[in-house]
Amino acid sequence: MPTIAFLSPKGGVGKTTSALAVATQLAARGAGTTVIDADPNYPVAGWASAGHCPEGMRVVSDVTENNIASKVREAAAADPFVIIDLEGTAAKIVVLAVQEADFVVIPMQGSVLDAKEAARAIQLVHDQELAMRRHLHSYTLPYAVLMTRTPAAYMTKTMATLRKSLADKGIPVFENVMVEREAFKAMFTFQRPLQALDPAEVTGVDKAIKNASEVAGELLSRLQPAAGEGAN
What we know:
The protein is an alpha/beta fold. It is built from 8 helices and 6 strands, in the order βαβαβαβαβαβααα.
C-alpha cells in the first residue's frame, strides 16, 4: 500500500496543512489512512488530540529514528494509505522515512527562496534513488512539487515563472495547487477536518474541501503509474 512522505526543509510552506488536508480527504473517500507525525513539533498529533479525526483515520506520533521504519511498515500493513509529515532534510529520521516512501510530495510556495529550499528536498530524493540502485538497479522514487499557499483568484508572475522553470528541468509539478484559504487555517484553530467545520463560522469551507479533494485525486492518479516503479 502506498506510503506518501510530505517533505520540506523550509517551515511555513503549508507542508503539514497539505498533508492533513490530503489525509482527511482520503479518509473521507473511505480509505483507511494513517498519518505518521514525524515533525518534531507534532502539529498533527496536537490537531488529533481534540478527538475529531474522521472515521478511518488515525495518527501515530511516537516515532523516533530508531523505530520510524517499523512504524511505517506497521501502518502500511494496517491501512491502504500512510501519510508521513516530515520536517527538514538533514535529520536521520527524515532519510529513514524517505527510504520507506513510495512517493514524495514536496510543498513549495511561489518564491525563489522556497524553490531553492525545495531543491534540497529533491536532491534528497535523488540521493535515495542512487543508494537504492546499489541493490535494485532500476529503482526510482517518484515525487512531485506541490505549489502551496497560492492566491485564490490568480497565479502570480513569479509562480508562473517558477512552474515553467521546474517543468523545463523535468521536475514533476502538481497541476492542482493548495490555495490560501481561511478554512485550511481553521482546521487547526477548531481541531476538526474540513468537512466538520461550520460554514457559518469559517469562510470558504466548500471551496477548501473541493481544493483538497482535487489535490488528493491528483495524488491518487500519480500513484497509479508509480506503483510498480520502486520495485523494479
